[in-house]
Design goal:
Number of strands of chain B: 4
Number of strands of chain A: 18
Largest sheet of chain A: 6 strands, parallel
Structural class of chain B: alpha+beta
Order of helices and strands of chain B: EHEEHEH
Number of helices of chain A: 22
Strand content of chain A: 15-25%
Oligomer: heterodimer
CATH superfamily of chain B: ACT domain
CATH superfamily of the largest domain in chain A: Thiamin diphosphate (ThDP)-binding fold, Pyr/PP domains
Largest interface: A-B, 15 and 13 residues
Distance between the termini of chain B: 11 Å
CATH class of the largest domain in chain A: Alpha Beta
Helix content of chain B: 25-40%
Largest sheet of chain B: 4 strands, antiparallel
Strand order of the largest sheet of chain B: 2-3-1-4
Radius of gyration of chain B: 12 Å
Number of domains of chain A: 3
CATH class of chain B: Alpha Beta
CATH topology of the largest domain in chain A: Rossmann fold
Chain lengths: 549, 81
């Protein structure tokens, strides 16, 4: 068996049925081994598309996502997707071809030191130096990407090793040295909880990584604790939970941010006090004792000190928090804040109001559907105005904030979940970053829906230029955009453009009820901003609200 | 504040790059370093300087697959101060 055949064989043995990639010189033996193999390959039109499709596959299922690229530029084009997966703890395996071993270090054609480039954007990475190591490295890589705190792992395989005869030895995973709960810390946490008057649960992406939605909901239902979510956590708290305050942070809801600022105990569940969440860190939840639950010990005290730290898998740690009931006085206050600061959709004017459109989409699309966002104003509106029943139904580039994520991520999600409704919600800036993947949708007849909220601007940058750069709109005007419906039509994707508020309801119906792929191009007010906004350097209770247009 | 660390690494050349990258990226300046190969592992003694608490570095180093163990040699002195 050649190294290339072994690579495909091992993927199949580990249950990998779908991979995304782009061939080239140094990975040709692996593509040859793919020919007729039981692993289905999806050709994207750029390696970044392959990387994000694999991320979308992984995030929409919790399974390993796999992508292939050739050496040199093929591998460098994967780097952004690896960085994105690193920031958002996504289980990803990237396999790259490398020039033959004898040519490494000679500045050969399409040679780049991919191992060196991978160091800052992978959980771990390998360059295979000996054919006899290949089987063990691949098996270890598959294991590492999914163990503990998940993350991307890269395996760089020189072409001669792909072509060499290689031995296969089953590799038995060493027992994971997952952290064990410290009973003293559990006792301290429960003591703090027993004295809490104004507790808040701050939910992060760790809930999905640990597959701990059930444990989370049991904890919340038991304690009635008000819950706020990070961008990545949206969907972890079920939509009908009475004290779900939605997203916190820079564009979080006012009630969510105020609750955190006023709380006396903050139970951080698989989150990492990201700067977009905390605003001014020294003023974030300043009166609160923090109980921090995370599988990664390096997150404890990294940004905010914890009074108690439960370092373990959330499935194990969450049930250790004793029965405790949130005081009624605090819940009454939370309810009044939720009522006072509820989102409003009664927007005056004839133009399409993006929050209303998204709220309608949320109500009309299947609750099992997947929404894949790009990055910018539309991404924040999705987070604010759509509801999700599981974090695998909301894919949004969180830590890295990568424009161009949405379309290829939706392709990965649709491949992974062929019977589910999958839509990418994008902006007119982001969609152009990986627009070539319309060809992948067409090639595979994927019924991916596309909603473009078009303000002919790089809207979020424009918003900041308006608010913080004296209205100097440097390089954010996109009024020369192509006609997106015509562009999609070239790829065989039907759709329509709307410009007025009274067209929204019928257009959302057409989108949701369309059989195959479909594009809804919604022209919105270029002066519409995302509110509220915690300005840079401010505390989360110093939110700006709509005052200027 | 300066801290002296001893680190044992798998004997793969990339392991050295990997832990040095983490130290730099997390805001710890390298002031001295000694590296020896013994018992099929790299043994590193290094001193780093930073205003940040040393656990912010050791907790990140401990996550590296190539790192077998990390010890802070002058931890007792720090606590005494």
């Amino acid at each position: 068996m050649t190294g290339a055949e072994l690579t495909i064989d091992l993927l199949a043995k580990h249950g990998v049925k779908d991979v995304f990639g782009y061939p080239g010189g140094a990975i040709m033996p692996i593509y040859d081994a793919l020919y007729g193999a039981p692993v289905k390959h999806y050709l994207t039109r750029h390696e970044q598309g392959a990387g994000f499709a694999a991320v979308g596959f992984a995030r929409s299922t919790g399974k390993l996502g796999v992508c292939f690229a050739t050496s040199g530029p093929g591998a460098t084009n994967l780097i952004t997707a690896l960085a994105d997966a690193m920031m958002d703890s996504v289980p990803l395996l990237a396999i790259t071809g490398q020039v033959p071993t004898a040519a490494i270090g000679s500045d050969a054609f399409q040679e780049v030191d991919v191992l060196g480039m991978s160091l800052s954007c992978t959980k771990h990475s390998y360059m295979v130096e000996r054919a006899e190591d290949l089987a063990e490295i691949l098996q270890e890589a598959i294991h590492l990407a999914q163990s503990g705190r998940p993350g991307p792992v890269l395996v760089d395989i020189p072409k001669d090793i792909q072509m060499a005869q290689v031995p296969f030895h089953p590799w038995l995973a060493a027992e994971d040295h997952l952290p064990k709960l410290d009973p003293n810390q559990v006792a301290i946490a429960n003591q703090i909880l027993s004295e809490a008057q104004r507790p808040v649960a701050y939910i992060g992406g760790g809930v999905q990584a640990a597959d701990a939605q059930n444990e989370l909901m049991q904890f919340l239902e038991k304690t009635h604790m008000p819950a706020v979510s990070t961008l990545k956590a949206l969907g972890s708290v079920l939509p009908d939970y009475e004290y779900d305050l939605g997203m916190l942070g820079m564009h979080g809801g006012k009630a969510a941010n105020l609750a955190v600022q006023q709380c006396d105990v903050l139970v951080c569940i698989g989150a990492r006090f990201d700067d977009r969440v905390t605003g001014n860190l020294s003023k974030f939840a300043a009166k609160a004792k923090v109980i921090h639950l995370d599988i990664d010990a390096a997150e404890i005290g990294k940004r905010k000190p914890a009074k108690a730290s439960l370092v373990a898998d959330l499935k194990t740690s969450l049930p250790q928090l004793d029965c405790f009931v949130t005081p009624d006085e605090w819940l009454t206050h939370i309810e009044s804040m939720m009522k006072e600061h509820a989102w409003r959709y009664d927007y005056p004017g004839e133009k399409v109001f993006a929050p209303y459109l998204l709220n309608q989409l949320s109500q009309k699309m299947p609750s099992t559907g997947v929404v894949c966002c790009d990055v910018g104003q539309h991404q924040m509106w999705v987070a604010q105005h759509m509801k999700f029943s599981h974090p695998s139904n909301h894919l949004s580039s969180g830590g890295a904030g990568t424009m161009g994520f949405g379309l290829p991520a939706a392709i990965g999600a649709q491949v992974a979940r062929p019977n589910d409704f999958v839509i990418t919600v994008s902006g007119d800036g982001s969609i152009m970053m990986n627009i070539q993947e319309l060809a992948t949708i067409r090639r595979n007849n994927l019924p991916v829906k596309i909603l473009i909220l078009d303000n002919q601007r790089l809207g979020m940058v424009r918003q900041w230029q308006q608010l913080f750069f004296e209205g100097r709109y440097s390089e954010t005007n996109l009024s020369d955009n192509p006609d997106f419906v015509q562009l999609a039509a070239v790829f065989g994707i039907p759709g329509q453009t709307i410009t007025k508020a009274d067209e929204v309801d019928a257009a959302v119906d057409a989108l949701v009820n369309s059989e195959g792929p479909y594009i809804l191009h919604a022209c919105i007010d270029d002066k519409e901003n995302v509110w509220p906004l915690v300005p840079p350097g401010a505390a989360n209770d110093e939110m700006m609200t709509e005052t200027v247009k | 504040m300066k801290h002296t660390l001893t680190i044992a690494l798998k004997n793969q050349s990339v392991a050295v790059e990997r832990f040095l990258r983490v130290a730099r990226h997390r805001g710890f300046d390298l002031t001295t370093m000694n590296l020896e190969m013994a018992d099929e592992a790299f043994h590193v003694t290094m001193t780093v300087d930073s205003d940040k608490p040393i656990y912010l570095l050791t907790s990140q180093l401990n996550k590296l697959v190539d790192v077998k163990h990390v010890n802070v040699e002058n931890q007792f002195q720090q606590q005494a101060i």
